[in-house]
Amino acid sequence: MSEEKKRFIHSLIFPLFFTFLLWSVKLIEVFLNLDFAFLGIFPLKVKGLIGIVTAPLIHSDFEHLIANSIPILILGTGVFYFYNKVAYKVFFLSYLIANIWIWFGARQAYHIGASGLVYSFASFLFFSGVFGRNMKLMAISLLIVFLYGSMIWGVLPIQPHISWESHLMGGIAGMILAIYFRDYGPKRKVYSWELEDDDLDDENPYWEMDHESNKELNHEN
Question: Same structural domain for residues 87 and 121?
Fold first, then answer.
């Protein structure tokens, strides 16, 4: 098995596990005829504090669950593939930061679902591609805009039954994390002709490659 394939499979494991967890919670709720909505975030209420941990695991119905499961798998795998060194930090910080903000600033209602994570992952990958000027990440960023372009409307209070606050908080959290972790992930390849003369020294790996190639060429001549 190639290294790329191993890396992809490894990147898929945690998002797949988390998605499995979401479905397990929903199936337990349905089969036992329960309603876990009380485990959502209820802003500024002590009873709503537990939702900071549990709210993303709860979904109103299977349509809601499917709508979050697919992007969690796709975007989560992208985060773990390109940012494997800090992926768990990005996941748990996205999870906690957005939910804490929701508890402090959202409407007085129960807020449930993993859409905050979806928006955080999408925002993180998008801004990481922009900040890093990496062609692969920029391509993913454009794909995100193309596939999830309609998500921008999700941060506006258009539909009262949807927690637009979760979307907004998640999007902002993802952008902040992209700034914080901007030095991680794939780097844009810098060629010798992009550098100033003063920067071309023996410590630059791309310059060394070009320099050695020139030596070999001159030796052959």
Answer: yes
Q: How many domains does the chain have?
A: 2
pLDDT in tens, 91-116: 999 999 999 999 998 888 999 999 89
C-alpha span between 54 and 34 (Å, rounded): 15
Are 35 and 118 in a shared domain? Answer: yes
pTM: predicted TM-score of the whole model, two decimal places: 0.79
d(CA 55, CA 112): 5
Containing structural domain, residue 163: 3-180
- Predicted confidence band of residue 192 (pLDDT cuts 50, 70, 90): low
Comparing 118 with 213, the larger pLDDT belongs to 118
